[in-house]
Structure formats: C-alpha cells, structure tokens
Amino acid sequence: MEPAYFSRYEQLSMRRDDAGILEVRLHTRGGPCQFGPRTHEHMVDAFYDISRDPDTRLMILTGTGDSWIAAFDESQGTEKDDFTVPRNWDRVYWEGKKVLQNLLDIDVPVIAAVNGPALVHSEYILTCDIVLASDTAVFQDLPHLAFGLTPGDGVHVLWPHVLGPVRGRYFLATQQKIGAAEALRLGVVNEVLAPHALMTRAWALARQLAALPTLTLRYMRVATAQRLKELVVREVGHGLALQGLSGAALGNPGPNPLPQDVPKAVE
Predict the structure, then answer these.
(1) Domain 4-248 belongs in CATH node 3.90.226.10
(2) CA–CA gap between residue 124 and residue 160 (Å, rounded)
(3) In terms of pTM, does the model score above 0.90?
(4) H or E element, residue 113
(5) Is 191 a catalytic residue?
(6) Given this model, what pLDDT does residue 255 score?
(7) What percent of the chain has pLDDT over 70?
C-alpha cells in the first residue's frame, strides 16, 4: 500500500518498487515541470515527507518529457507571491532554506536523472549523489538575473562548490549555459546518455546499489552529504536575505512578474 503522501503533491509523481527504490518525477499537469510558487511549496513538504519514510532505500529524481525545469507557470502567481513585499519574501526565505535542507536530509542515495534543460533551480541536482544527464540537458541559472535578483537561494553555494569559485561565479554572473558534454568534462554530471536510455540507466544503478545493506546505503548518504549540509545551513539564509533585498529594490511589479525573455508555460 502506498503512503498517503505519494498522491498529496500535484507537482510530483511518485512510485516505489519492492526493493524500496522511489522514483520522484517533477511535472506540471502531467507535462514538463514549469516552476511557480506552488511548485516551491510542494517540494519543501514532499522532500520532508520522503526524508521521514523508512521504507525508501534509494531515490531517483527526474523530470517529465523533454525538460527538467525550463519554464515558469504564470497561472500559479497570486498577490501573496509579490516578492517585493517583505512579509511575502519571508515565506520564500523560509522555503528556500528548507527545500535544500530537506533534500539533504533524505538519508538514502539520490540519483538525479536530468532529462533535458535544467534552467530553473538547477542547484537541486547538485545535492544528489549520482547525476545522469540526457545528451539534451543544458544547465543554467536563468531566472535570477532575468528577474533582476541577486542569485542567493543556494545557486551561489552549490554551483561554485561544484565548478570551483572562479568558474562558479562566472556561471552565475553571465547566465552561462553548460551543455551535457561540457558538464561531464567539468564534473557536474557522471554520465551522459541518449534520452531513451536515461531512466533505464538510472534504474539499473539504483538496483545495483539496492543490493547493499540498508544501513550501508543510509550512512553512505549521511557521510557524503555532511559537507553540503554545513554549506547550506551556513550560507543559504544569508544569500536569500540579500536576494530579498534586491527584490524589494525593484518596487512593486505585481504578482509573479515574468520578463519577456524568461520561458513561460505553454498551454
């Protein structure tokens, strides 16, 4: 019998096999995931629920269709999502810290299967233990500078940690796009595969790891995630505060304002 939380979050589809391998698929109305305020909320709570479930022994995190997250869902925006209002930003500040902390508190190995462009919250991928990418994948931090915001919600911690400080700052400051082959060369991903082979490989690796004892799996994740946890706890709150200040300086553009060059949901 599936836990109740498997069907609680409309932005995440979950299934788990008899070996305890949980597949979490990001989506919007069954299609490619389009990011919005409710997506953020659901991820915070979903990752918390997953972290508390002892029946999950491994996790695969992936997207839907031809992208990881590459567009925004304008329909999710309400007045409470006007990030120039401090009370509203306080919610984003809390969620921004907790989503990364909750991801890292999932005490089992996590495999990212990046099925296409990861332009929004690509830092989530960098919390995973194994990163597989389709050869169509592209990594970028698109939204922060496009919205006029300081990139401070974790991208400023995890990307320089993976790329190195000089390359990481360049990646953020120029909104650089890194293709799958270049990501492999830079150590961002472990394997690049054809799109049709991506999930087959992710499940094969998960089953290979699932042969290990449960405590070995859990404590391997605990041991290797510790440094990232320390970075996130120490630096993400500060970065989010600065991001909020940069948003407040924009004035009042209304709920969920999207610049013209930011990909939007396609109905």
Answers:
(1) yes
(2) 14
(3) yes
(4) strand 110-114
(5) no
(6) 46
(7) 94
Q: Is the pLDDT of residue 256 over 90?
A: no
- Residue-wise pLDDT tens digits, 55-90: 999 999 999 999 999 999 878 877 777 777 778 889
Strands 138-139 and 110-114 turn out to be unpaired
Yes or no: say if 44 and 105 are a contact pair by the CB < 8 Å rule.
no
- Give Rg (Cα) of the chain: 18
110 Cβ contact list (under 8 Å, min separation 6)? 58, 59, 60, 61, 103, 127, 128, 129, 130, 221
What are residue 69's DSSP bridge partners?
Answer: 118
Out of 74, 123, 230, 235, the active site residue is 123
Q: Cα separation of 201 and 191, whole Å?
A: 10
CA contacts within 13 A on the Cβ side of 84: 12
CB burial of residue 41 (10 Å; 0-12, 13-18, 19+): middle
